[in-house]
Amino acid sequence: QVQLVESGGGLVQPGGSLRLSCAASGITFSRYAMNWYRQAPGKERELVATITSAGASTFYADFVKGRFTISRDNAKNTVYLQMNGLKSEDTAVYYCYAHRSSVYNYWGQGTQVTVSS
Fold first, then answer.
1. Among 96, 116, 67, which Cα is nearest to 5's?
2. For position 98, what pLDDT does the model report?
3. How many CB atoms sit inside 10 A of residue 6's CB?
4. Which residues lie closer than 8 Å to 51 by C-beta, 6 or more apart?
5. Residue 27 scores a pLDDT above 90
6. How many other β-carbons are positioned within 10 Å of the β-carbon of residue 37?
7. pLDDT grade, residue 81 (50/70/90)?
8. pLDDT at position 4
9. What angle (nearest 5°) sits at the alpha carbon of residue 99, between those of residues 7 and 77?
10. Which of 21, 53, 63, 74 is the one with CA 20 to 30 A from 106?
């Protein structure tokens, strides 16, 4: 059974930081590109960041460049999202997504991030 379990969300003040984690099980983690998406109320889910299977390459949406960092530890089957300089517009549910092919792709259940004073 495949499981992606996100953690680390919560309430933070503007300008603050959070580190999200996504622990994977049931897949050969090192074969999957890993992604963080987010979905704010009333909005479509959007890609935040991507890291390739070996961690050699990363991609960031323009709205988080310079503030967020994606990383992974294949020995721990875990992907991270370090979020600094948080803004109110970063408030959303953040989802972990493992992608290998059109067949082999999986979503986590999401973790809420709320940026508010």
1. 96
2. 98
3. 22
4. 33, 34, 35, 57, 58, 59, 70, 71, 72, 79
5. yes
6. 21
7. very high
8. 98
9. 45
10. 63
Mean of all residue pLDDT scores within the chain = 97
Q: CA 25 to CA 1: how far, in whole Å?
A: 8
Backbone angles phi, psi at 88, to 5 degrees: -60, -35
Hey, what amino acid is at 100? R
Q: Encoding tokens for residue 11?
A: 């309430």
Q: Are strands 92-99 and 105-107 parallel, antiparallel or unpaired?
A: antiparallel
Q: pLDDT grade, residue 103 (50/70/90)?
A: confident
Q: What are phi and psi of 84, to 5 degrees?
A: -115, 160
Question: Which whole number is the average pLDDT over 50-74?
Answer: 97
What's the CA gap between 22 and 30, in Å, rounded?
A: 14
For residue 60, the one-letter residue type is Y
